[in-house]
Each structure stands twice: as structure tokens, then as C-alpha cells.
Amino acid sequence: MTSTPTAHAVPLPAPHSAGCPFSPPPAYTEAAATAALTRADLPRGESCWLATGYAEVRTVLSDRRFSADVRHPNFPLLSPGRRELITANPSFLRLDDPEHARLRRMVTGDFLVKRVEALRPAVQRIVDEALDRMTEGRTEADLVADFALPVPSLVICLLLGVPYEDREFFQSISQTLLTNNSTLEKLTEAQDELLEYLSRLAARKREQPEDDILSRLAARDDLTLEEVAGTGILLLIAGHETTANMISLSTALLLEQPEQIAALADPAAVPGAVEELLRLLTIVHAGLPRVALEDVELGGTTVRAGEGVIAMLSTANRDEAVFGDAGHRSVDELDLGRDARRHLAFGFGVHQCLGQPLARAELQIALATLFRRLPGLRPAGPPDERAFRTESFIYGMRSLPVTW
User: Fold this and answer.
1) How far apart are CA 233 and CA 217, in angstroms?
2) Are 53 and 299 in contact (CB under 8 A)?
3) Are residues 171 and 149 in contact, defined by beta-carbon separation less than 8 angstroms?
4) Which CATH number characterizes residue 88's domain?
5) Is 4 inside any structural domain?
6) Would you call 330 helix, strand, or coil by DSSP?
7) Is residue 1 included in any domain, yes or no?
8) Which residues have C-beta within 8 Å of that of residue 379, sequence separation ≥ 6?
């Protein structure tokens, strides 16, 4: 990775604009319109590559010549203060095989499609109960606080074996860990607190196991309590933050286009509608970082060994050549009838999101139930009262006032 900024390079992380809040930052979409591979400047001035085309992003995420190991000295990070923190105890998402595969296999079984399908009645009950609480005795609510956040939080707590009454603690910690301008001191303090909390919980489950993921991990002789806690952090944060933001963003977008909500009334159409929402609203706006282990030809350009590459899921999912079906709306618009199954919202290759079957089930149940039970759902105020999370690595919403 060269330390000399490139002229006209994209600054990372790029700021969001006052335009459409459901689109990636303009700098990313402009780069994608120019070339599939663009130079970009990291916060400290180092230069890396930005892969924006669909084919190039798939290659970066699936070709073993690109490493996900955050311990590589040239690994591109958008928050310089995180390097020391992340490299000290990387999750399996930040490792290559065989380390990645060994740790991932320990929890794969809990997120298999068959296991998730068996969970659907429990998820439906959680969704119904959340709506019961939200609507009892009132006609207005903050959809984020009263529905989008509680549903996935309850689900992941159920799976992991984390007490739901501790949700305010881990949700606050999550916000700190995901905010790209958190100081190293705050990041370290937050991670240490969550590691200590989950280590204590894992120790208790090692003595008194229950039917949950932390208990199964804690029972293994080849894992320390700290390793169990480290995996727990990844699953706990990813398991509620991503889905919560997808529920709120999807709802906000659908409320702007109520004519498309009817598609959610057909159970057969709901899975396809969710895939289109995942494609268009790809919440990892800042992309997935990798580093080249050797020279690789990518999009007609040679990426040199040691150079960082950031795979932009959000622009790849708006690649006209892949998703611009004839007879459908522009790739920059929502079209719940579009075939969006090839989207990369969950990543691609061996590191793609472990929990995608669960996320899909939660989104399908939550959105279909929300609009079925509240057909009169509408914004409670003007658009500028919605609060978007532009400072987070996971794009989403802080609040969404609604009425019915």
C-alpha cells in the first residue's frame, strides 16, 4: 500500500449527502460510474483500491489471493484507531483459513436453513408480541426503539443465551464499537466491558449449560472463555444491529412508496421483496476490506501484492449489467418484483454472513406482519424528523416516528 495520496482519489470514508438517504454516499456511486476499480485515500493518507463493480467485488471476496486477515500490516481500515484493537483479538471474519474455517464451523450448525426454519414460530411470536406492546393504548411510536431494535435483539438473545434484560448494556456498547469516530480509548473500554460480561456469562454456562450457542461453545475443551466471549461479541452485535437497521430502513422506504407495500400481502412474494430491499439498502456502505497477497489482475488493472482493496457491496448491488432487468425500474429504485437474488448484501465467498438465513427469516416475518397488522402505518412527521446513522459502519436509523 503506497503512502502517497493519489490525485482525484475517493476520500474514505466518504460523507453522505443531503440527497436520497437510501443511497450510498455520492463519492462511491460516482466512482462506480467511472470505473470498476478506483484509487481511494484512507484517513491517514495511505492509498488503496476501491472495487465498485459487481464482478470485481465478487472476485475480491472469493479469490484466496485477497486476504481478510486484519493482522496484515497493509490491511486497509477506515478507522485508524481500530487497528490495535482489532488485531489483538480478531474475530473469525477477520482471519483467513484454516483459522477462519475452524472457528466458523463451531457455530455454523446454529444458523443452518433447517435450524432457522424451525425457529420461525418463535420469531413470529416475538414479532407479534413486539407489535402488541408498541400499539397498546397508543397510535404513535418510534419504530426503531419499539419494534426494529427489540425484535432482532430478542431473537439473538434467545439463540446466544444472553439475558434480554441486559439489552441496554450491549446495545450501548454496540453503538460505541460501530461508530467510526470512536476514540481508541472508548473502543478499548467498550470491548473490554463486553468481553468481561460475556466471559462471565460463558463461565456460568460452562458450569450450568443450557440449550444455547454460548453454552455449546463454553462446553468445548479447545476454546478458552475469552475465545467464547470473542465469538459471542461478533454474533451479538451482528445479530441485532444489522437486522434492526434493515427493518427500520425498509419500513422508511416502503412508507415513501406505499403502492409497493401490497406485494408483502402475498406470502409467496415476500422472500423476493426482501431480497430486493437487501440489494437496494445494502447497509455496509463502507465496504469490506481485503489486502492482496500477490499481484492480481482486476478489472483491467493490476493490484500489486500488499495493496489494500475495499469491496463496495453497495455499488456492486446497483450494477446495471447485473440488476438492470428490462421492464423494471432503475437499479437505483425499489422494485419489489425484481429478481435480486444475486445481490451481495451478505458478502460473498467463504466469509459471507453466517447469519443470513436468520436475517432473511426475521425480515420476512417482521415486515409482512408489520404492514398486515398496521395497514394504516404512515410517518408521524415530516421526513426531516427521521434520524439516519451516518456515523456508523452499519448504516441505518436512530429513530423513525410513525403513526397508524
Assistant:
1) 13
2) yes
3) yes
4) 1.10.630.10
5) no
6) coil
7) no
8) 255, 385, 386, 400, 401, 402, 403
Beta strands in 71-204 (DSSP E): 140-142
Q: What does the pLDDT look like over 171-224, one tens digit per residue?
A: 888 888 887 777 778 888 888 899 999 999 999 999 999 999 999 999 999 889
Nearest-angstrom CA–CA distance, 361 and 18:
32
Range of the domain at 339: 10-403
Q: List pLDDT tens digits, range 3-18.
A: 333 446 898 989 888 7
52, 38 Cβ separation under 8 angstroms:
yes
Give the β-pairing of 308-311 and 288-292: antiparallel
Residues 132, 137, 140: CA angle, nearest 5 degrees: 85
In a domain, residue 3? The reply is: no
383 DSSP assignment: G
Would you put residue 25 in left (φ > 0), alpha (ψ -120 to 50) or beta? Answer: beta
Pairing of β 308-311 and β 47-51: parallel
All cell numbers assigned to 301: 488493472
Identify the DSSP state of 147. Answer: I
With residue 309 as reference, give the H or E element that holds it.
strand 308-311
Does residue 80 lie in a domain region? yes
Q: In terms of residues, how long is the chain? A: 404
| Identity of the amino acid at 9 | A
Which segments of 23-74 are extended strands (E)?
37-41, 47-51, 66-67
- State the total domains in the chain: 1
